[in-house]
Amino acid sequence: MTDTAQDGIASGLLARVQDRSFKLGVIGLGYVGLPLALVAARAGFEVVGFDINAERVDSLNRGEPGIRHIAAGDLAAEIDAGRFVATGDFTRLGEPDGLVICVPTPLTRHREPDLGFVVRTAEAIERHLRRGQLIVLESTTYPGTTDEVLKPILERTGLKSGRDFYLAFSPEREDPGNPHFGTASIPKVVGGDGGDALQIAQALYGQFVVTTVPVSSTATAEAVKLTENIFRSVNIALVNELKLIYAAMGIDVWEVIEAAKTKPFGFMPFYPGPGLGGHCIPIDPFYLSWKAREYEIPARFIELAGEINTAMPRLVVEKLAQALDQRFGRGLNGARILVIGAAYKKNVDDMRESPSLRLIELIEQRGAMADYHDPHIPVLPTTREHAALAGRHSIALTPEIVRGYQAVLIATDHDAVDYKALVAQAQLVIDTRNICERTGAIGEHVVKA
Is 436 an active-site residue? Predict the structure, then answer.
């Protein structure tokens, strides 16, 4: 292909982006892919959403987003306007001018990267890749994935990145349930495999996000995402460790943090909890520590933070057992425990990597019976790591029911829970989020953990 023809492909894509005749495909319609698809559709782009879950596809096409913080009306508006449709037909991957990959990147049981979803998606694209398409990976992964894993699969077609198609990485920055920032209002980091890919990807995202932040390569963009979440993981581990130290000294870590954050410079507050949850912070650091071994560089801070945060559920359960012993002269064996919150963070229906599931398992391993209440998760879904808990139902918070448990363990501080009523009805409350003090739900039977 001549340089002139190559320039023509790139300029043609840019022109379609600018006049919004560019057709976008989003692969993976979960907490990342669906919000992205909707903001692009609202900006005037025709969007095809791809998902392997047939039930998910059907519900979306009925106008049911299935994600609490996405309004059904917003989805229905784009469907009615003909700007969004969901499909499980991956033979249509050749139709869009651009494909954005938003599939999971979990860890294996050995805490190593599992790129199975990315690889299978790349292989599906490979079968239908055509000249002139833009392919963007958004799934969080280690530096080098786009270039070392995705690109070789796509180039097995004989088409070449930067000449026949364009390849980029732009890390997702979703924060489900955040009332202040959504997909369109969060700056978008973009790295391309060459100048044309960067220009096209940046132009595309620039049509529906507040601003784009170009970086020099796909590996740099991949590193940006890991750095953001490793920063949080390490600092959360630090305050979790400080909580244990200060508790031994009779000092309330929550009071310490509240006072420290009045400093207008040089301090950023992070808060302890029962463990890490979500699709990023518990997972992303291990992607970099795994990759660092290739260069024979130990990732000591990252691995230590992971150890501390992973240990928190067990420490919380130990605190629960001690509180039961002190109040009732008994431990966990034979006790009935109610866990408040199954979601990994407040006011969302997202259970990915939620420490609540591990807490329930640990409580029952100690001979107790555990139920849960969550206003946003009526039934526990099937997960790979906690399959035995699937199908359990949320328990109502009536006074009679709450009084029937020896202890209530607050794992997630949803706003929909009446904590004053909960404390008034419960025999013992173990609070891992300091929500009782924050809401004025005070009692001598409330224990911070």
Answer: no
Instruction: Determine which one of 26, 280, 357, 363 is catalytic.
Output: 280
Domains 3-216 and 232-448 agree in fold: yes
Mean pLDDT value across residues 125-134:
98
Angle at alpha carbon of residue 214, lines to 210 and 220, rounded to 5°: 125
Name the amino acid, one letter, at 208.
F
- The whole-angstrom separation of Cα 127 and Cα 63 is 30
SS3 label, residue 213: strand
Within 13 A of 9's CA, how many CA atoms are on the CB side? 21
Domain covering 232-448 assigned CATH 2.40.10.220 in the classification:
no
Domain at 3-216, CATH class: alpha beta
CB 280 within 8 A of CB 32: no
Q: Where are the domains of the chain?
A: 3-216, 232-448
> Which residue type sits at 425?
Q
Using DSSP, state whether 429 is helix, strand or coil.
Answer: strand
Q: Is the pTM of this model over 0.85?
A: yes
- pLDDT tens readout for residues 26-61: 999 999 999 999 999 999 999 999 999 999 999 999
